Amino acid sequence: MKYLITGGAGFIGSNYVNRLLTRGEGVIVYDNLSRAGAPRNLKWLRETHGADSFQLAHADIRDAATLTSTAKDADVIVHLAGQVAVTTSVLHPREDFEINALGTFNVVEAARLSERNPIVIYASTNKVYGGMEDVPLAESETRWQYASLKHGCPEAQPLDFHSPYGCSKGAGDQYVRDYSRIYGLRTVVLRQSCIYGPRQFGVEDQGWLAWFMIAAVTGRPITIYGDGKQVRDVLHDLLDAYDAAIARIDDVAGQVYNVGGGAENVISVYAEFFPMLEELLGAKIPVERDDWRPGDQRVFYADIRSAMKDLDWNPKIGVEEGIKMLFAWVEGNRGEF
Questions:
Q1: In 3-state terms, what secondary structure has residue 144?
Q2: Is the dihedral of CA 211, 294, 6, 74 positive or negative?
Q3: pLDDT at 189 over 80
Q4: Residue 305 is part of a domain; what is its CATH number?
Q5: d(Cα 172, Cα 166) in Å, to the nearest integer?
Q6: Cα(110)–Cα(105) distance, integer angstroms
Q7: Using 50, 70 and 90 to split pLDDT, how confident is the model at 337?
């Protein structure tokens, strides 16, 4: 099959492209190369698989004509391109809207206009659920947690697009879902939690696990916002979920799934993660403290039981193992930072 990966030079995209090329698939990487790590990821892909191993479309997701032309040869579109940070969306809401909402509309329109009826996988976000202020929380010494949602936030939780980022990604989420209902497109929406792993050039406002590791290893200043007990579910092995959704598209087209570490892979941002990081580093890590940032939930972890059942998928790499793997990659690639 021929795969079109928007954002294919990014963290998740380059890892998925690597997987696809390894098993002999045809790949088109569609990316505007605006992220700092994108050229490095392309270089890595070419060094690993050969300069001509994939087709590069150096273009923007907002360019509907180029995207439509590029997508006409694709059997599968995995839409990963986007503006990825809540804080950036607050500062630049129009740009955030044009990239995430309009860009995703361009993707589903390109799929609708294609004669190949491509499968469309959309990387949505847990931010579509907003602050979940109606859900009671409980506080312990090292973390916040849901008081009653044992398995985490389900897909049935009402949507609440808090922050421009939540609005733009949520708009894309609903467009992808509705294009399946109205036009019969074979789409799957994956509402992703905190994804981490190699090739993740994290920055302060996105990719927090990688950012803290990079900052700690390279001696950069670190700021902890809020009380440090905010909790997230983290997922290292996301790509298996993409493969599972594509393989089962006849059964799951039009569906929406939470995809994250789930309740079994939860960690608090500072109180639980930093002792692990300091042990790996072998040194105490100095931090500064600041107030909560807009849209920063005290708690989010996803109920992933629907994805586990329908996709026959589950996270295989636990928190401690995954953190050690990411730290080894950061340590082994100091020169990249």
A1: strand
A2: positive
A3: yes
A4: 3.40.50.720
A5: 10
A6: 8
A7: confident
How far is C-alpha 198 from the geometric centre of its chain's CA atoms?
A: 13
Tokens of 56: 């590069």
Residue span of the structural domain in which 250 resides: 2-336
CB 175 within 8 A of CB 128: no
Q: What is the pTM of this model?
A: 0.95
Q: Work out the average pLDDT over 6-33.
A: 97
**Given the residues 16, 146, 165, 301, the one annotated as active site:** 165
What tokens were used for 295?
């849209």
What's the number of domains the chain is made of? Answer: 1
pLDDT at residue 295, rounded to an integer = 65
Q: Find the helix or strand (DSSP H, E) in which 336 lies.
A: none
Task: Say if residues 242 and 272 touch (Cβ distance below 8 Å).
Answer: no
Distance CA 121, CA 43 (A): 25
Which pLDDT band, with edges at 50, 70 and 90, does 297 fall under? Answer: confident
CA distances from 275 to 89, 228, 330 (A): 31, 12, 17
165 is catalytic: yes
Query: What percent of the chain has pLDDT above 70?
Result: 99
Residue 329 pLDDT grade (very low, low, confident, very high; cuts 50, 70, 90)? very high
Helices 273-281, 208-218: inter-axial angle, 10-degree rounding: 30
Which tokens go with 3? 């795969």
Structure-block tokens of residue 311: 């996709």
Contacts of 2 (CB under 8 A, 6+ apart): 25, 26, 27, 28, 73, 74, 75, 76
| Digit-coded pLDDT (tens) for 213-257 | 999 999 999 999 999 999 999 999 999 999 999 999 999 999 999
Count of Cβ atoms closer than 10 Å to residue 150 Cβ: 9
